[in-house]
Amino acid sequence: MNYPRIPKVDQDQYTYEKDLEARRTIETPFTQRIAYNASNMPEYIGASAPGGNVTSSVWQIKKLFYSGNFVTASLYVSGSSEFAYVWDDRATYNYE
After folding, report:
1. Count of domains observed in the chain
2. What mean pLDDT value characterizes the chain?
3. Which residues are 48's β-sheet partners?
4. pTM of the model
């Protein structure tokens, strides 16, 4: 994708920074939940729109897998990052 070059003011003369891209980022607030395993390490991380009910299909859930104290994988429910899962059912899903 080609983005317009952004002007840089240089002693009242406009010049362009070479290969500088401009992008707009929109921050969206989320409700976040974290469930811990028996070792008190984060095991599940979930996000939903603000106020998401834990029994509604509005959650994006991922599970962290460990080797000792190190995270070796972070996988979503069925490999999908969609906001379509129930937080309270997180332990029953397959993570890919």
Report:
1. 1
2. 83
3. 31
4. 0.70
